[in-house]
Design brief:
Layout: E1 2-5, E2 16-19, H1 22-38, H2 42-55, H3 58-74
Antiparallel strand pairs: 1-2
Length: about 80
C-alpha cells in the first residue's frame, strides 16, 4: 500500500489517500474532489479549474497523468 495526498494529485489539501494501485488512488482523489465540489470548497474549486485548463490540452493531460503514475510507483510501501 502507498500513500499520496490531495496536493500531490493536483488538489488543494493534505488529505491522505492509501491504495495499492495508482488507479485506486486516482479514484479516491476523484471522489474527494466531487465531495469538495459539493461543499463549494474554494481552494479545491480553484484546483479543479486549473485541472480543467490542463484537460483542454490532451497531450499535456496525458503527460501529467503519466508523471503522477510514475510518482506513485516510485513511492515506498507504507
Amino acid at each position: 500500500m502507498k500513500t499520496m495526498n490531495c496536493k500531490q494529485l493536483g488538489g488543494a489539501c493534505n488529505k491522505a489517500f492509501h491504495a495499492n494501485t495508482f488507479d485506486e488512488i486516482a479514484e479516491m482523489s476523484k471522489q474527494h474532489g466531487m465531495e469538495m465540489f459539493k461543499n463549494n470548497d474554494e481552494a479545491h474549486l480553484k484546483a479543479m479549474n486549473d485541472m480543467q485548463a490542463l484537460m483542454q490540452k490532451p497531450e499535456a493531460m496525458k503527460d501529467w497523468f503519466n508523471s503522477k503514475r510514475k510518482e506513485f510507483e516510485a513511492l515506498p510501501e507504507d
